[in-house]
Amino acid sequence: MFLYSTKLHTRRLKRKNNYNLVCNLIMVWIISIFIPCAIIFQSTFYGYIVFALVFTLLGFRMIFFGLGIAIGWDNEDLMENSAVSSFCIIIGYTILRWLEI
């Protein structure tokens, strides 16, 4: 159903060559599915996938080539957004742990 729905609803986006937008929409869909799965199954693997996709949406990139890895952001604005988002996530997690929720 996911593939059919994606093909049906992103047809107009593909005509405009918005491949990044289509990939971002797919990542949002995967995140929205994996968050409840991570909570229900208490899976660190699902949690890792969620955070990796969230930071990918925020502009963090890892490029694998040959025997090396390039790690970074597309530009400085995206780096600042990732830093602020990371700060908010850590503060939220700390408050939840402090309240023992």
- Determine the structural class based on helices, strands and strand pairing: mainly alpha
The strand order across the widest sheet is 1-2
N-to-C SSE string, H for helix and E for strand: HHHHEEH
Spatial shape: globular
Please report the distance between the alpha carbons of the first and last residues: 35 Å
Range of strand content: 5-15%
Low-pLDDT residue intervals, each spanning 5 or more residues: none
**Total beta strand runs:** 2
- Whole-number total of structural domains: 2
Q: What does the average pLDDT come to?
A: 86
The percentage helix is: over 70%
Number of separate helices: 5
Biggest pleated sheet: 2 strands, antiparallel
Instruction: Round the Cα radius of gyration to an integer and report it.
Output: 16 Å
Would you mind describing this structure in some detail?
It is a single chain. This protein is mostly helical. It folds into two domains: 1-57, no CATH class; 59-101. Helices cover 72% and strands 12% of the residues. It has helices at residues 2-9, 11-15, 19-41, 44-57, 76-98, and strands at 60-65, 68-73. Strands 1-2 form a two-stranded antiparallel ribbon. Strand 1 (60-65) and strand 2 form a beta hairpin. Helix 3 (19-41) packs antiparallel against helix 4 (44-57). The N and C termini lie far apart (35 Å).
